[in-house]
Amino acid sequence: MKKTLVYIVLATLAVACSDVVNEVPDTPFSTTPYTFNFNKSVLPPVNIPVDNALTVEGVQLGRMLFYDPILSADSSQSCASCHNQKNAFTDNGLARSTGINGTIGQRNSMPIFNLMWHLDGFFWDGRSDILRHQAIEPIIDQTEMNETIGNVMAKLSNSSRYSLAFSKAFDTESIDKELIGKALEQFMLSVVSANSKFDRVQLQLEEFTIQERTGQVIYNEEAITINEERDPNNPENIGGDCFHCHGNSLFMTREYMTNGLPNVTDIGRGGVNGNARDNYKFKTPSLRNVEKTAPYMHDGRFNTLEEVVQHYLSDMSDATADLSEEPNMHALRDSVYLSEEHKAALVAFLKTLTDDEFLDNPAYDNPF
Ligand code: HEC
Ligand code: HEC
To answer: Is the CATH number 3.40.1160.10 carried by domain 197-352?
Structure first.
């Protein structure tokens, strides 16, 4: 009885084994999981969409696409043309980007890093809520790469380099919009900035200078509303209140805000959701690497950080948006006076957010 059982089991195993052997394709599809190597304690937990786990092959494909002018109609422009790694993936000093036909766009190019923590809204007005969909928009935008998805798919399918790269990343040579978007999403999500002087000071590996430390205090101090006579030399009033909107380890909130820029014509967020209260509000940018992302604001109106700081101290306008919403920008405008020394300290602190390792990281550079 026992013997028979053993035979049956063995026979079944043999059949099972031979089946498996017969079904094994020449090269089974497998990908290598992508591993992040930044210091996990300085940023929020890794946050990757479940349906697009990062793989070495997918990130590499996305990186090729990002740097390849093949995505534009006349093969003259890649994503990197307006998103240069050396400038924290912003444009090369242009207030507003220029597309392939020389058309000047409406807005300032945006930095690309730490995007895994703003998966809920892309572009200055947050009109795209999924990164892989966002990635397709510049390709078809007439003022940017001005190409059709049909043409892009055809061009990529005719390239043996891409047929191979798509099969390695996604086990298919049939290239479509979704996969192009997913590959670009993977590359962009792999781009992390977490090793600025600020981070190293948090980890107690370095120390701020006295000036940077003063700047940090100004950055994180609340502006106090005073009804008394304004006193530019009142040492109490150094609260720059920057942290309210550019707070936490990402140096941004995930909100659409106004910072009182005068003469804004672009209605920003309100144009997307039709809510008049959101008119003239924009995605609050991260201030990491801000030293490298000039010119500043959605329209690139300021060339230097000193001009930006001066804006927050004097020129804020509530002509276009209500500044009294939380946090109260009136308090900042009406009560904070920084001496030249204080302004310089605030700028010095902002410069501690520059991450040279990220700006020079060969993994994010042109793969060709
Ligand atoms: C002609 C210049 C130009 C090209 C080419 C370009 N971009 Fe952009 N990019 C911009 C501008 C300008 C914005 C802001 C646009 C807006 O808010 O309306 C932007 C915004 C973005 C954002 C939003 C970031 C955020 O924090 O919300 C991402 C991501 C991005 N681009 C990725 C890409 C990718 C991927 C490509 C290539 C497929 C690309 N860009 C090609 C100029 C360009
Ligand atoms: C009420 C929220 C709020 C406060 C407080 C605030 N900001 Fe901003 N900041 C914004 C918004 C919103 C933008 C983008 C505005 C736009 O482009 O129209 C911005 C843009 C910037 C930019 C430009 C970044 C870029 O990439 O273009 C810098 C630099 C900046 N802020 C620094 C500061 C500093 C320094 C302080 C403190 C003195 C501060 N901010 C306080 C909301 C705020």
So the answer is: no
